Structures
1.
Amino acid sequence: MDQIVYAFPFLLQGLWTTILVSAIVVALSLVIGAALGVGLVYGPLPVRLAVRILSDCVRGIPILVLIFMVYYGLPPLGLRLDPFWAAVAALTLFKAAQVVEYVRGAIGSIPRGQMEAGKAIGLIFSDRLRFVIFPQAVRRFLPPWINGVTDAVKGSALVSLLGVVDLMHAINQVIGRTYEPLPLYLLGAALYFAINYSLSSFSRVLERRYAFVRE
Amino acid sequence: MEVVPLLAIEQLSKSFGSNEVLKSVDLSVSAGEVVTIIGPSGSGKTTLLRCVNFLEFYDGGSIRIDGSEVGFRDGSQRRRRTERDLARMRAETGMVFQSFNLFPHLTAEQNVTLGLQQVRGKSRKDARDTARHWLARVGLEHKAGSLPSELSGGQQQRVGIARAVAMEPKVLLLDEITSALDPELVGEVLDVVTQLAADGMTMLMVTHEIAFARDASHRIVFMADGRVSAEGSPDHIMSGADGNDRLEAFLSRFRGSRI
C-alpha cells in the first residue's frame, strides 16, 4: 500500500499522457474523419473511391499492426516519428476511418428532401451542410461517436508498446519494482473506468440535449 | 399589351438513363399568371417543375427566368453555373414540396428566417418581422415557436408556403402540395394558394385537384408522355377537350365525382 502511495505521482503522470494521447487522437480524428466523411457522401467519384478504399483498409487492420507499421515501417521511407507521435498518428488514422463511417451513416439517414429544401431557398452547399444537414446529422452521429471516444481511451494503452509512458506503461513499471500486480492493475482499471464512465455519462447528457433539438 | 414571359421554357428535354421523361417541352408563364399542369402520373409534370428550380439537371433546351438561364451561364454553351450563382438563381424561384420538407430541427419561424438571413442577408430582426408577417398570412402566427413535429400536415404545408414566399421569389412552384394531406386538411392549404393568386403571385403548379385547378388557374397545361398535349383556359381544357383523346381519357376519370 505504501508503495502504491509512493508510486501515485508517477502513475498520475502516466494518466496525463493517456489523457493527452486520447484527446489529440479524438480531436484530430474528428476533424479528419468528418472532412473525409463529407467527401465520401458528396465528393466526386475519385474522392469517394479513395476515401472508401482508405477507410476499408484501415478498419480491416488491427490497431497494433497499424502502430507498428507507422513506427517501424515509415522510417525506411524517410518519415521518422518519435514513439509518441507515431502512436498518435496510427490511432488517429484508425479512429478517423471509424468517424468516416459514423458521418456517412448520420448524413445518409437524413431524407433527400432536406437537401432539396435547402437548395430551393437558395442556400449554397456549405450553408446547406451547416444549417440543414449537420444539425440533424449530429443526433445520429453522437451515440456511436462517443462510444468510439471511450474506445480511443482504451486503445491508447497500446502506445505503451512503443515505450511511451502512459498509464498502462507506468503501471507496468511500478509492478516491475514492487511485484504487486493485482492491486496496481486494479488501480489502473479503476482510473480507466473513471475516465470512460464520466465520458459516457456526459454522452447521455448530450444525447438528451439533442434528442429534443429545442433551442 | 405585349406580355414578356417571366418564365420561358423552350424545347426542354430530360432523360433518366434511357427513359426520356421530357420531350421538347415549351411552356411560358407571364408575370402574375397562375398556370397549372395536369396529367397522368409519369407524364413528366413534377420533373418539369424540378428542372425550373434546377433540382434536376436538364439535358437540352432552356429555362429562362426574367431572361436568365436557370442552370447554365448566360451566353455560353451549357457551362454549368457556379454553386453561388446557382443558389442565387434558385432563390428567384420558390418551391413548395409534396412532402413539405420543413427543417425538423427548426421552429416554424426559423424555417422561414433561415433563407432570409443566409440568402437575402436580412438582419435577425428584419428576418423575424418578415417571417411573422408571412406566418400570419398563412394563419399561423400563433405557431411561430412550434417545431414541425408539433404541427398538423396542413399547418406544416402552410409553413412550407410561408418559407417559399417570404423569399419574394419571382415564380412560386407548387409540386402536388396537397397530395400528402388528409382530405380534411386540403382546404386550408388551397385557401392560402388562392389568396396568393389573388395578390398577383406568379405560380406554376402541379396538382391532382382538378376542381381547384379549374377555379384557381388562368391557364391549364395538360401533359402526357413527356409532352405538352393540350393547353388553354380552364374552361377550354375542361369542357371540349379539343378533340384530344388522351385529355378526354384523363378528364373522364374525374367526371361525375368532383367536377
2.
Amino acid sequence: MSPHDGELERLREEVAAWRAVYGKLPLREGVEFTSVSGRELEPAYSALDLEQTLGAPNELPGQYPFTRGIHPTMYRGRLWTMRQFAGFGTAEDTNRRYKFLLERGQTGLSVAFDFPTLMGYDSDHPRSEGEVGKCGVAIASLRDMEDLFAGIPLDRVSTSMTINGPAAILFCFYVAAAEKQGVDIRQLQGTVQNDILKEYMAQHAWIYPPEPALKIIVDMFEWAAEHTPKWNTISISGYHIREAGATAAQELAFTLANGFCYVEHGMARGLAVDAFAPRLSFFWDVHNDFFEEIAKMRAARRIWARHLKERYGAADDRSWKMRFHCQTAGVTLTAQQPMNNIVRVAYQALAAVLGGTQSLHTNALDETLALPTEESVRIALRTQQILAVETGVPNVADPLGGSYYVEALTDQMEREAEALFAEIDAQGGVVAAIESGWFQRQIARSAARFQGEVETDRRTIVGVNDFLEEERAAPDILRIGEEADRTQRARMARLRAERDDARVEQALTALRNAAVADRNVMPEMLDCARGYCTLYEIRDVLERVYGAYREPVFF
Amino acid sequence: MSPRTLSRPIRVLVAKPGLDGHDRGAKVVAAALRDAGMEVVYTGLHQTPEMIATAAVQEDVDVVGLSILSGAHMTLFPRVLQLLADMGRNDILLTGGGIIPPEDIDVLQAKGVGKLFGPGTPTSELVQYITTWAAANLDG
C-alpha cells in the first residue's frame, strides 16, 4: 500500500505544492468542514495519509482482521437480512404486522416491546398504566409469546428481540413458545439484545445492579451454548449510545469496551472464550456522516478481531469475526418535512451496506411522530430492496477498500478507540465508569455540543434550521388507543385465573433458591416460563435477591 | 426579556415520568434552562406522577416540565396536573415536550397544560416561553 521511499518523497513534495495552491483558493463561507461528530477533515487524502496505516496492506475480504468484511463472498454469498423492528398493541396486533412484513419479502423478525415489558412489569401492574402496547408489543407471559408467533414456525424464521433488563425472562418465554409449537429448540435462530451495560449508559431500561445483571447474562451464555447453539445471546449495541448523543468514536469505543467486559465476565466464570464468543453479535447506529459511518464499521471489525485473538487468546476464527446489525439513525429523522426522511434513510442504508452489515433495519419516515404505519414501513423495506437488487452495490465486497479517505478514517477511528479504552481503564473499567456516571456525562456533553452547533447555525439540518417551509398537515400516523391496555388486562386476568397456582409457586421458589445458591438460573427460569409465571413475578423474585439499580442523577 | 425581570431566578423541575428512558432531550433542556439563569432540578428517570408532584411542591418550583417520548402523555400530563391541583398548587405551570401528536396537544392544553414542544424546537424557544410566562404570572 505504501510506495517506496523515492516515490514517497516525491509525493510529499507534490502534496505540499498542492496544499499551497489549495490554501490560496476561496472556500464556501460560513461552512465548517468537519464531520457530524466534529472531526476535523483534510481537504483531500492521498497515499501519504496511509504511510503509518494500521491496516494490513493486502488484506482481502474474509481475511483476518476482517477490515474488509467477515466473508470472502460478502453479499454475493448472501444478502444482508432485511429486518424491520416492529411491535405495538397486543400480541395479536403485532402478529398481524409480522405476517404483513413476511408476505412482502422481509427476511427476519424483530420484536419491539412496550415500556412495561422492557422494564419487567406486567401489563396490569400499576406502573404500566398508560404505557401498555404504546411503544411496542405487550408481552407479560408465555401466553402472550405464543400468540405473538401464532402461525409463524419458529424453526423457520430468525427473530431478534430488543430486550435487556429482563432479557433472560423473555428469552425463556420464546424458548417455551417454541417447545409448545413442537420445534426442536436447537434449531432456534435469532438474537436477544441482552446488553445491559449500554442500558446504564444510554437506553435506561435496567432492573438489577451491574454485577448481578452481568451474572444473569453469563448464565445465558453458558446455557445457550449447550441448548440453543444457533442463538446469539447478546447484541452489543452502540445504537442507543449514539442516539443519546455520543460521537461516532465514542459509540465505537464504548460499545467495544462493553464487548470486552462481557468476554472478561464469561472467562471469569471459567467458560472457554471460543465456547461463547462466536455467539456475540453487535449493533451499530448509522448516522448521517456517510464515510465516517463506513469507517466506524470497518474499524470495529478490525479492533474486535485483534483484541479477541491477541488479548483474549481466542483461537476459533468465528470468535474473531464481528457480525453486526445496523439501524438507520432515528435521531436524524425530522418532524419537519417528514417525507425528506426517506432520503436520509436511503443514504444511511447505503452506508450500512458499504460498511458490510449482516442485517439492517431502515427507519420509516414517520418515526419521529409515532410508530410507523403500514404504508411507511413498506417504503422503508422497499428502500432496502431497491438497494439490494437495483443499484449493483452488493456485487463487490468492500468497494471502498483502498480509498485513501476511507482507509485513513478507519485508522483514525481505531486510534481514537484505543485512546478511549485507555481512558475507560483509567476510570476503573466499564462498571466503575458507569457507577460514577462518567460515560453518561461524556455522552450528555456530546449531545449538548451537537445541539449548540445546530442552534448557532454552525450545523444545518434541512427543514429544521434552513430550507424551511410552511408546514403542511402532518401525515396520517398510527394511533395506539387504550384498547390494547383493556385487552391486555382482560388477558392477564384470564391467565391468572386459568393457570395452576401451585405450579407457579413451586417454580418461583425453585428460581429463588437457584439465585440464592448462586447457581445458573436459566433452567429454573425456563420452568417458570413453562408454568405461566408472569414477567413481573419472575423479575420480582430475582429483585428480592439481587436488589435494584439506582442511577446517578445529573444533567 | 430575561429571567432577571424577577428579583429571584425562576425555579424549574425537569421530570421524566413513566417508564420511558429517553433522557437526551430532558438533559439538553435542563442544561439550557440553567444556562439561561434559571434554577433547575432534574428528577432522573422512571418517576411516578406522585413523585413528580411531591418534588415540585417540596422544591417550591414555578414550572414543571415533563419530557415524554413513550406515547403515555395522555395519561401522565393530566395525572400530574390533577395532583398539583390536589396539593393546592395549580399556580405551577405544567409544560413539556416529546413525541406528542398535535391533536393530543390541543386536548391537553384545553385541560390546562401549558405549551408543549416537539422535536427540532430550539431551546431558546422554551426559555422565551417560560420567561414570558414568569413575567406575567410571578410576583417578586
